[in-house]
Amino acid sequence: KAGVTQTPRYLIKTRGQQVTLSCSPISGHRSVSWYQQTPGQGLQFLFEYFSETQRNKGNFPGRFSGRQFSNSRSEMNVSTLELGDSALYLCASSLGRLGNALHFGNGTRLTVT
Amino acid sequence: GNSVTQMEGPVTLSEEAFLTINCTYTATGYPSLFWYVQYPGEGLQLLLKATKADDKGSNKGFEATYRKETTSFHLEKGSVQVSDSAVYFCALSDRGQNFVFGPGTRLSVLP
After folding, report:
1. Which of A2, A62, B27, B59 would you label with A20, given CA atoms 20 to 30 Å apart?
2. Is A50 exposed, middle or buried (0-12, 13-18, 19+ CB in 10 A)?
3. pLDDT tens, position by position, B56-66
4. pLDDT at A74 over 70
């Protein structure tokens, strides 16, 4: 069974630009979550989508947005990039019920210059 | 709100030593508890989980028991190997996929 796939693996962008990250979940998983990982803040929850609906949202500004398609694939968009957005962005999929584990991709490393 | 506290390390051990990484949590209700491991350049991998009090999760020689009375989920391994060097995250979830992660503990195992 294929795991969670995130593309691209690495991105370099300039302040003020926007970026879109992609995530393909494990087949059959309807929940997709996004996390930001930085050395200073650790793992921070961005949002979770289940069956194309945003079910939970973390404490990030509106520049961070996402969506989920009918095939459960998800995209995350960050507009007006800031230097502080440099991070590893992790996508995780699951069956979406209490007790179900998250299954993570290898992440997209975003560097903002 | 929910929170997870764990020793941040780094923890440095010799091969075949006993490992304990402490994890305590604060949550309303009855969360599920997890340990994840992250190797350099990779995402997090599920190591083990427990979904109710007194459950013991185990995998690859690692164990952790869900202790509701002490709100703890300490990770243990009897004999660590160099290949266990990684960052370990304790996490809880409640109300579906609302996960909270600890800060991570970096483990280095020396040959």
Report:
1. A2
2. buried
3. 999 999 999 99
4. yes
- Chain B closest-CA separation from residue A74 CA (Å): 16
Backbone angles phi, psi at A101, to 5 degrees: -80, 155
Among the partner residues A97, A103, A106, nearest to B96 by beta-carbon distance: A97
Among B97, B98, B101, most A C-beta atoms within 10 A, so best to mutate, is B97
Residues in Cβ contact with A25 at an 8 Å cutoff, skipping those fewer than 6 apart = A4, A31, A32, A72, A73, A74, A91, A93, A103
Question: Rounded CA gap, A80 and A19, in Å?
Answer: 9
Confidence at residue A99, expressed as pLDDT on a 0 to 100 scale: 83
Interface contact B43-A100, CB threshold 8 A: no
Contacts with B23 from chain A: Cβ below 8 Å:
none
Which pLDDT does position B28 carry in this prediction? 83
* Pair B87, B106: CB distance under 8 Å: yes
Where is pLDDT greater, at B15 or B9? B15
Provide the mean pLDDT of chain B.
94
- Asked whether B49 and B32 are in contact (CB, 8 A), the reply is yes
Among the partner residues A43, A98, A107, nearest to B93 by beta-carbon distance? A98
Alpha carbon A21 to its chain's center: 7
